[in-house]
Amino acid sequence: MIKKEDSLAVSPETEEPGKKGAFSFSGYVDAYYSTNFNKPLSQRNVGTAGTARVFDQRADQFALGLAQTVVKYTNQKSEVVVDLVFGPNADLANYANLGTALAIKQAYFKYDITEKWSATIGQFGTHIGYEVIDAPVNFNYSLSNLFGMGPFYHTGLKSTYAFSEKASLMLGVVNAVDGFGDNNRKKGIIGQFFISPAKDWSIYLNAIRTNDENPSSSGVVPVAYYQMLDLATTYQVSDHLLFGLNAAIGSQQLTDSTGAKPWGGVAGYVNYAITEHIGIGARYEYFDNSSGARALLDFQKNGTSVNSLTITGNVTLAEGHVLVKPEFRLDAYAKRPNGAREFEDTKGAFTHNNQSTLGVAFIYKF
């Protein structure tokens, strides 16, 4: 499993004779077609609150996802990464660049203080979660609600110490979540503990705690913490079979007068490689935002919960450069006490609590 802070595997490095450093260039482009069995009038999969899907939001049409370019320079003691994304989905994961369709996904440099100890400063992808923004890295094309509720990236300083190949600790200080700058003088704390207790078994324990509230007119910052604990783990049972799990709990206090509102979820993954070039995988997820703390809301902007099942195929072509991913997904939302529904029908009325989509994604990575 590759964490959100990691980039795609880069292309072979080219190094000038007599130079210690090396440049690399990589990226991808993805597009998809999806049909929604509810046939919503808006031709969108997002539901009443606009948050039912993260990236694959369009229905019954072809759509572009992201185009990514990553430039990396490395030498024996340091590394610098500039990771840019373009296209319709760039806005959805980079709030600081909203409306530009061009976003800095990552821009940071890392210095190896010793062989085991490194420091990174800049904007980097979040350590939290199982899935990543990069479409070629995830087995499923559509993203989980755990991913969609964030965070996506951080701006700050972090340091990692590797006790061994099987254990490491990362701690960092960051600005407000999913933003370049900070809206107050307080800083957030992030952390990750990695351990591999057995061969082919990886466990990541992740955390964040920050106060992103705006100061009052007198300069006082309300006590309103955003905090989250996250577990992501994979076990490669055999060359063909992989199990994965992501579980998270969090809370958000919006003002001094309101108590902390909780949310949480769990997602299980199973991937099976039928052949070297053909695989199939499934994800089941339950996400509970009944308190209304995050963006998963009903038509009245109240909190809700959802069960999701996703089944994805994976066909690899062109020596690994082309990925074709047919996918079925079912989202079943909790029934509301007032009988209101979450999803559109062909006339634009919200008459469905469930949503099923079937589509195929096409990805080219280089």
Structural features, described:
The chain has 366 residues and is mainly β. It has two helices and 18 strands. A 16-stranded antiparallel β-barrel has the order 1-2-3-4-5-6-7-8-9-10-11-12-13-14-15-18. About 4% of the residues have low confidence. This is OmpL-like beta-barrel porin-2.
pLDDT under 50 segments (min length 5)? Answer: 6-18
Q: Which strand-content bin applies to the residues?
A: over 45%
Helix content: under 10%
List the strand order in the largest sheet.
1-2-3-4-5-6-7-8-9-10-11-12-13-14-15-18
What string, H for helix and E for strand, traces the elements in order?
Answer: EEEHEEHEEEEEEEEEEEEE
Query: How many whole angstroms does the radius of gyration measure?
Result: 21 Å
Number of strand elements: 18
Q: What CATH architecture do you see? A: Beta Barrel
The assigned structural class equals: mainly beta
Distance between the termini: 19 Å
- Could you name the CATH class? Mainly Beta
Instruction: Look at the structure and name the CATH superfamily.
Output: Porin
Short précis:
InterPro entries: BBP2 (IPR011486), Porin_dom_sf (IPR023614). It comes from Ravibacter arvi. By secondary structure, the protein is mainly beta.
